[in-house]
Amino acid sequence: MKAQRTRSQERILALLKTLNRAVSAQDLYVELRSQSQSMGLATVYRSLDALKLEGVVQVRTLASGESLYSCLQQDKHHLTCLQCGASIPIHECPVHELETQLQRSHQFKIYYHTLEFFGLCDPCQAAQSANGVVS
């Protein structure tokens, strides 16, 4: 039986749907305060964790260690530059068939997956080349 959501969880989920983009817990906290909705940062984190475990929110961790949260929509895949932090979405899913196989073979309900490739974007590669750095 699914646990009832708290008022804080409902407010955070509604805000994530409104924002329609991935945001950090700190950004959610600031946005809630700007809307005169008092909620502690610890409550924001606890609510996000509960919504993640329920399978309605997904989290993506950047190379910097920052976590970004969004409503569960679809799997996310990115190319992320380690130099400037630019993140380029990949629109095709190279592991969709693997996900289906894993669900069947392990009787495991997968809510979502992320796939992240880390390296250097073209402008950062050009800047390194201009500075004489070889990678």
From TrEMBL:
Record's keyword annotation contains Transcription regulation: yes
Cited SUPFAM superfamilies: Winged helix' DNA-binding domain
Annotated CDD domains: Fur_like
Transmembrane segments: none
Gene3D superfamilies with a match to the protein in the record: 3.30.1490.190, Winged helix-like DNA-binding domain superfamily/Winged helix DNA-binding domain (1.10.10.10)
Keywords: DNA-binding, Repressor, Transcription, Transcription regulation, Zinc
InterPro entries registered for this protein in UniProt: FUR, Fur_C, WH-like_DNA-bd_sf, WH_DNA-bd_sf
Family: Belongs to the Fur family.
PANTHER family: FERRIC UPTAKE REGULATION PROTEIN, ZINC UPTAKE REGULATION PROTEIN
Protein name: Transcriptional repressor
Organism of origin: Trichocoleus desertorum GB2-A4
